[in-house]
Design a protein that fits this description.
conserved putative lor/sdh protein from methanococcus maripaludis s2 fold, flat, alpha+beta, 420 residues, single chain, 30% helix, 6-stranded antiparallel β-barrel, 3-stranded antiparallel sheet
């Protein structure tokens, strides 16, 4: 009986010890920081400087509307031939309202006619569903970015896809119903055209160019012929002005195939070279970079005057005038990592004379299978949220690559450590 009691006590003691060890390991692991990783990826960083300046173009102001109601025939940024109708002037607002209704009705008829003509290709309903979703996605992307340059085209395409989808899911009489709807709208259009008889004047373009419905007052203050004598001080004085907007003219015509951007850059050590092409990023009403040739650079006092020229994107920039831009000097290509992924290791480096010095080496630890391995890197660019780096030896077999899983949060890290 005593032996049985002793054996039981020993068994209970072993069991309690096992439970205690298990709980200790559990609590220790609970206090350990979980491994946090992310993916490194290839990235291009634009490096340059900010500048302020003004767009300079050859511009001809179209005649004053004379109190009439203006209906622009040409759209903003639309190319026009010499003698082309640019706008209609109406004697009262009712005629302008009728003209706008005619434009809307004409667009609807075009959409319906397109859906009817293309009905033989609308049998694949799943394809149409995909096109509708693509149109919605494109429209949402534009609105999220604030880019309204192609918003009308995207909205028109979405409406057309919805028309086609509705009739694709309809019955066999859908084509007949669509034809009746087109005929009804054509009759409405004919009635509106018949009632529109109060056109006072047609405004024609005096030359070939690009139309803009906005006259901002800068047209008489700066043009390309004045750029040769422009200095940093005179441009600074010009930018300090606030010309009064002009309300009378119908619009303006931008002539000439080349437009310019006169910019002021802070400092004199800009690194800009005449004749080279630089990318400029504008603010507002246009998204994206425009390549421009640096025609002239002049160092004056604490500022630099730079004159850029461009033969493209004229139709996209008609609404731009005084702008704050980023002038991209060069592009850095490397691997982007979060700031927490970079580690500094201090080592003693032997010199040629036998002495040693303390240097910092930068490493990024990656996870390969279940172990951590450090990859030495050079820092190309520093941002508030990330580093742009490249391997110290780009030809090494074991180097940091885009797509590697990098470790962010482990302080006690070394080569070969089992991390998962």
């Amino acid at each position: 009986m005593r032996e049985s009691t002793l054996a039981t006590k020993v068994m209970i003691a072993i069991l309690c010890l096992g439970v205690a060890v298990y709980l200790a390991v559990y609590f220790v692991r609970g206090w350990e920081e979980p491994l946090v990783t992310t993916r490194a990826y290839a990235y291009t960083q634009d490096v340059g400087m900010e500048a302020s300046g003004i767009l300079v173009r050859d511009e001809t102001i179209l005649p004053d509307a004379g109190g009439s109601y203006v209906d622009h025939i040409l759209g903003e940024g639309e190319k026009a031939a010499a003698g082309q109708a640019a706008a209609l002037l109406y004697t009262d607002s009712a005629a302008l309202t009728t003209r706008q209704a005619i434009r809307t009705l004409t667009a609807e008829i075009e959409q319906l006619q397109y859906a009817l003509d293309d009905r033989t290709q609308t049998g694949d309903a799943s394809r149409l569903d995909g096109q509708v979703l693509d149109s919605i996605t494109a429209l949402r992307s534009l609105t999220a970015q604030g880019d309204l340059t192609t918003l009308d085209d995207c909205a028109l395409n979405l409406r057309t896809m919805v028309f086609k989808r509705d009739f694709a899911y309809g019955d066999g009489s859908a084509a007949g119903q669509l034809s009746q709807l087109i005929q009804s709208k054509q009759e409405q259009l004919a009635q509106l055209n018949a009632s529109l008889n109060q056109v006072a004047q047609v405004v024609y373009t005096p030359a070939a160019g690009v139309f803009s419905g906005t006259v901002d007052g800068w047209e008489g203050l700066i043009n390309p012929s004045r750029l040769d004598g422009l200095t940093a001080q005179s441009l600074s004085d010009l930018l300090s002005q606030t010309p009064a907007p002009v309300s009378g003219p119908v619009g303006k015509l931008i002539t000439g195939s080349t437009w310019y951007f006169a910019a002021l850059l802070p400092g004199t050590d800009t690194g800009l070279q005449s004749g080279k092409t630089y990318s400029l990023t504008f603010s507002g009403d246009y998204y994206g970079q425009i390549p421009m040739v640096l025609e002239r650079v002049s160092l004056e006092g604490e500022q630099t005057l730079a004159i850029f020229s461009c033969r493209t994107h004229l139709s996209d920039t008609t609404l731009l005038r005084v702008q704050a831009v980023d002038v991209v000097i060069h592009h850095l290509e490397g691997i982007r990592i979060p700031r927490k992924a970079l580690r500094v290791e201090t080592v003693e480096e032997e010199q040629e004379d036998g002495s040693t010095r303390t240097v910092n080496r930068y490493k990024v630890y990656t996870v390969e299978r279940s172990q951590s391995w450090g990859r030495e890197v050079d820092i190309l660019y520093t941002d508030e949220n990330f580093y742009l780096v490249r391997p110290v030896d780009p030809s090494a077999a074991k180097r940091l690559r885009a797509g590697d899983e990098v470790i962010l949060n482990s302080s006690d890290i070394y080569d070969g450590k089992v991390v998962r």
